[in-house]
Amino acid sequence: MKGERQQNQNRNNVERPFKYNAGDRAIGAEMSQAASVASAAAEFITEAGRNAGAEAPKRTFMRRVGDRTAFLVLREGAEDRPLFRDEAGSLPGGPCLIRSEEWLQTPELAGLYECWLNSEDEFQAERTLQRIYYRLRAVSAALLESADGAWAAVTLLYTQELAAAPAKLAKLHDVQLEALFAAVAANQRLGRDSRIDLLAPYPASAAEFAVKREFIEDVAEQTLGHAYAAACSIGALVAPDVQPAAAGEIARIADFLVLDGAADIAAPEEFTAEGFARTAGEVLAAVRRVKPAAVVLAAGAPAAGALADLYRIGMSGIFCSAGLRTEALLRAACLTWMARQDNGDTAAGGWL
């Protein structure tokens, strides 16, 4: 399938060194060349070497014995962010996680969404869906123009009501993807670089994720043509109650994986920091057996609370909201400093 062919290409990509120099950063070329969320870690390590005054060695996102990659503390949500991009400013070392369900709660979309979801008239539903498309395109354009527009990881729309109506969910995903990719195409015509990585929400198996991935690729090809591969990667947002073996198989064909502590699941113990860390360890172990270099991040408040355990087991990093980010950055910095002292190697880890 397309997802499997893409995965074969990704195996070759992870072995390719990142060849950025100071000039590249000055013009922001690295964000348009980045292959996936995985590149954020390699970019940070290379940047750390330059800041130390040493010539940066060629690195890949492949581990050597005794090494660990940077632990990323990435943003979730758009709180306290400038409304417009600073083209001359510094670019992010990783994406901001955007949960698109929040778009459905805005005054512009909430009424349309409820009307479409409950409409029994097919003609009226189609007209409402068309209006939703234009609203989603406006939201997507605003995202690309904002400070998060350089690189964002956007979840596909998902609610409990939509999960119970697969046909409607597929239609809404089609509209959302077309709106996102149309906004990316318009942005590219203006000569601006943007990455919109997509997250398929809560697949229970590799087969389910493969179907969603192929659907995303089909819409991307129709909207962006073959250029879509340079504009997005496709990952999976998995719930804490996912079977570890299933998570491993999903990771085999996903560009990256995000374990979501904010998922609405039945087991309340998974929402505690201790329970989340235990689940993350089981999922990570299963994923690493299948794909040792896989990028596995965590999101939600439980992830921030379990940061020390997630760092210890070798997670790639976390997404956290503005209210938790400062504390998470400080804790990650302390953990990195202690790891460097223990290992006697200034390249043992990092934080961002």
Entry keywords:
TIM Barrel, alpha/beta, 8-stranded parallel sheet, globular, 352 residues
> Helix fraction?
40-55%
Order of helices and strands: HHHHEEHHEHHEHEHEHEHHEH
Lateral strand order in the biggest sheet: 1-8-7-6-5-4-3-2
Largest sheet: 8 strands, parallel
The CATH architecture assignment turns out to be: Alpha-Beta Barrel
Q: How many separate helices?
A: 14
Supply the CATH class.
Alpha Beta
The averaged pLDDT comes out at: 77
Number of strands: 8
CATH third-tier fold name: TIM Barrel
Please state the overall shape, judged from the principal axes of the Cα atoms: globular
Strand portion, in percent?
5-15%
How large is the radius of gyration?
Answer: 20 Å
What separation lies between the terminal Cα atoms? Answer: 36 Å
Q: How many domain modules?
A: 1
Low-confidence stretches: 1-66, 346-352
Structural class: alpha/beta
Task: Describe the overall structure.
The protein has an eight-stranded parallel β-sheet with strand order 1-8-7-6-5-4-3-2. Mean pLDDT is 77; it is low at 1-66 and 346-352. By secondary structure, the protein is an alpha/beta fold. It has a single domain, classed as Alpha-Beta Barrel (TIM Barrel). It is built from 14 helices and eight strands. Helices cover 52% and strands 10% of the residues. Helix 5 (107-118) packs antiparallel against helix 6 (122-145) and helix 6 packs parallel to helix 8 (166-189). The two termini are 36 Å apart. The protein has helices at residues 2-13, 22-27, 29-33, 38-51, 107-118, 122-145, 160-163, 166-189, 206-224, 244-253, 273-290, 301-305, 307-313, 322-343; strands at 72-75, 96-98, 151-155, 195-201, 234-238, 257-260, 296-299, 317-320.
